[in-house]
Write a structure and sequence with these properties.
By secondary structure, this protein is an alpha+beta fold. 46% of the residues lie in helices and 11% in strands. The chain has a seven-stranded mixed sheet with strand order 2-3-4-1-5-7-6. A hairpin with a 6-residue loop joins strand 3 and strand 4. It is globular, with a radius of gyration of 19 Å. The chain starts with 14 loop residues before the first strand and ends with a helix.
């Protein structure tokens, strides 16, 4: 899905999301069901043209599935439409496998070269923390079309123009892609795994938007990512504490099991999935101690 929306009603920024979903029924059935729900959708051959309607296209990188690409969406109406689309995909039993991805484009036409350079430097430096949000297939260079930036840290530190960043990376198949600027005027976040869940998509959109805004003031550290999550998800209501804590502990255990033991990375992942949680580094450390004791 390619989406341009207002992610935060207090801070206007357009963005796009490319959502790749695995095929469960024929394309025309997808199109018909989405259109019946009030979301004008057409089936098209693969193309890079932004439409005024949603488009369902094939992509060789998606194993047995489609890409669902939106027109430009803005404001709360855009978020409402995205929610409606995700509800229809769930009704159709759509799912995502490891060949699928969630791609978010943010408009950077009004951003300075310095801001974008700060963004790429910071993302490369904090990539392992951000990897903690992702399944194993999206960490490091585990995915063919989602390559690490860590090997480019030296070159990015000296890159002060968009063209210099482009020359350093040399491909669009990076976790953060600058090539889209010359086609759409955007920067593309390719890191996230495929999903049809509205909450995961909207959370990632808000976090990546916050990264760009924070980059306007300089480079940022991993602790700033946790602060961004706190700012984004500072809401009054929350699920029952015991249910939330069980879920948090499960997230921590799963990350420990696959070798993600960096406490900041685990905490940031928890914050992304449980935005209202009051968990801190001390709590994460206690989870790690219990996990480590139980496996020995």
């Amino acid at each position: 899905v390619v989406i341009e929306i207002l992610a935060d009603t207090n801070r206007v920024r357009t963005h796009e999301v490319l959502l790749q979903v695995r095929e469960v029924i024929i394309a025309d059935a997808y199109r018909r069901k989405l259109t019946e729900a009030g979301v004008s959708t057409r089936s098209e051959s693969y193309n890079h043209t932004t439409r005024r309607h949603w488009k369902l296209t094939t992509d060789v990188s998606v194993n047995g599935g489609y890409e669902l690409v939106s027109p430009i969406l803005k404001g709360q109406n855009g978020l409402d439409t995205l929610k409606k689309v995700c509800d229809v995909l769930a009704e159709l039993n759509c799912s995502a496998n490891r060949s699928c991805g969630l791609h978010v484009h943010h408009d950077i036409n009004n951003e300075s070269a310095e801001t974008i350079a700060n963004l790429f430097r910071s993302y490369a430096e904090n990539e392992r923390i951000i990897d903690g949000f992702m399944p194993a297939s999206r960490r490091g260079s585990g995915a063919q079309y989602v390559r690490t930036l860590r090997g480019n840290r030296g070159g990015l530190s000296a890159a002060n123009t968009l063209q210099a960043i482009r020359s350093e990376l040399g491909t669009r198949y990076k976790k953060l892609n600058i090539e889209s600027y010359w086609r759409y005027g955007t920067v593309e976040f390719r890191h996230h795994s495929g999903t049809v869940e509205f909450e995961k998509i909207s959370n990632w959109v808000k976090l990546t938007q916050a990264m760009i805004e924070r980059a306007a003031t300089g480079t940022f550290a991993g602790t700033s990512i946790t602060t961004m999550l706190n700012d984004i998800f500072n809401v009054a209501t929350r699920p029952a504490r015991n249910i939330m804590q069980k879920g948090i502990a499960k997230v921590a255990r799963e990350l420990f099991e696959v070798g993600v033991t960096d406490r900041a990375a685990v905490l940031a992942s928890i914050k992304l999935q449980y935005p209202n949680a009051k968990t801190n580094l001390r709590r994460v450390t206690s989870y790690y101690k219990m996990w480590n004791e139980n496996r020995t």
